[in-house]
């Protein structure tokens, strides 16, 4: 077998090929792109017997996506994508001098896959449909996170110079179309105080009881609040106008991407199974599919899927001390989606709610209970995907059916 460490950069890859004894038989710097992949195949082939299969080549790289990785997987190599933190810790085990270079990183990755491949997760090739869902679902979620960051910046600025706007627009939501339109029209306290009920009502298109809401907003904007000088307020207004423009653009693009997420997710063969799960809609279903992937046999068991999801607890034991903790190293996108699923499921599925209530009765905190609910739902999802069946409450929670009937 051959073991290859691939330290990638934007325009090149430093690779090292090791034999089974850990000897470096080849080091090379390859260009990014098709030419680099072709050269990679040539380097590997020069050290493989003629009757050897590509599966006898194990590649370790600090990423699990991109055209380069997909090309290696398509060629039949066993490719292991490792977290940079894992690679850094292995590098520390090999030597504590602190020295670092691209060649040394490639050497460490090759040694890592040679000695610890049983601890690494092999990259399994997802379908093109799942890859497409991942692209749009991650982009959609990233834009939502960006909108939240800009909203917090907007809130901070308004708090510093225009607290009346916070009081007036907070009920609408600072990222709502109406609040952004009113801030774009009048970004200073003086300008906002001159807004008429008609102007405010026009911005509240789509809201119920617009007249009462407009009157309340106008009253708040004209109420007495602490303020900055006009010069300072105008400077703040310039920054707020820029943030408002960014938020308006993000709102438009988030809505556009939401349609793309739903369209790509709807074309995936597992969409109906995911949508049948309690607490999951099209957007959450797309996120869960994107992060779990759809490669067959990627998860050997429900436990393996739970471990990857980060919902299963970990035990720390030393002597007579034994404690159970939540996993803090996990896929942030996936754990966020599963937390949202659990939060929705306890509201709409009686069996899930009964399990949550049982946990709360044991003085488990809300967040810890949601983690356990999410962990159970991941196991149920795994069973449904393995058997290609939709969620059925009686099958998923057979031990609770008598309680629910009562």
TrEMBL record:
Organism per entry: Nonomuraea deserti
Residues annotated as domain Transposase IS110-like N-terminal: 4-163
Family annotation (NCBIfam families): transpos_IS110
UniProt name for this protein: IS110 family transposase
Alphabetical list of PANTHER family matching this protein: PUTATIVE TRANSPOSASE FOR IS117-RELATED, TRANSPOSASE FOR INSERTION SEQUENCE ELEMENT IS1111A
Single GO term (MF): DNA binding
Pfam short name (any one): DEDD_Tnp_IS110
Family annotation (InterPro entries): Transp_IS110-like_N, Transpos_IS110, Transposase_20
Domain Transposase IS116/IS110/IS902 C-terminal: 271-356
GO BP of this protein: DNA transposition
Taxonomic superkingdom: Bacteria
